[in-house]
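Hi there,

I know you've been waiting on this one. I reran it after we fixed the sequence typo, so this is the corrected version. Both the input and the resulting structure follow.
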Amino acid sequence: MKTFNQINIQSLRLFVAVLDQGNFSEVARREAMSPSTVSRVISQLEQALQTQLLYRNTRAVSPTESGKLLADHARQVLAQLDLAALDLQEQDSEPGGLVRINAPVVFGQRHIAPWLHELSAHYPRLNIELMQTDDFIDPLQDSVDLLIRIGVMADSTMQARTLGQQNFRLAASPAYLARAGTPATPADLASHSCLVFKGFSGSQRWYFRESDQEWRSYSLRGVLTSNNAETLTQAAIDGMGLVVFPTWLIGDALREGRLVSVMKSYQVSTSPEPQTIAALYPNGRRTSIKVRAVIDFLVEKFGAPAYWEH
């Protein structure tokens, strides 16, 4: 059985550095050592492991199979130690600097902007840049630290943390229902004015199902189609027809009675796949303290389930 008690972190760092540079001399120069000292450390490492790690010649060194195996493990160990050191350094640190956030327009207005004053007061060293757009954003190209995205989460190179589920309601104003009647089934909607959102991919379809049955989609029409959710919401409040929108958008109108939820025995959505509200950030070895702070803050403020569901 091989003994590892002669191996230390410095010897592993030097070993990985030699592999990266391909020779002892450059590592020695960077570490302010002599080449013979670096070579001796590697030799001691080979003796401790009782195996040859490097092929040596006058111009360069290259790893043996054992050297490649050790290098893989050594890089993981060193990365974890570096991460632990950074976490310890940041343990008592206050988040600061510029954090760039991108959020959908309406959600940003309703559920990000109202919390910014409290976020800033909690982290006074934080500078916040909030950009609101419904367009596609490449976080690397556009230098975004944190993306707030809503919908079906596709596979991505981004890491994600769920802030809440997107739940939909079919709703209309009391005045509209008094005039046109209350639909009892999705088939009844054919005789109603349905206010449909129309985005870059076309008119939104409405999906309905009872309990655990299959989703069925419906393509419906009404007196108004728009690419602006707030315009359609106001039109519904004014009695122009029915809308299908998420609770984060129409929750206040439902609570205040300006809109009434109908067909409650049916689940309703704009997609047969689950939709979430998520915080996305670049997929890296670790998340910066400022990004973690913003995400943790939003998770706490939104709650579980999110406050707009109540």
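Quick highlight: The domain at 168-269 is CATH 3.40.190.290 (D-Maltodextrin-Binding Protein; domain 2).

Best,
R. S.
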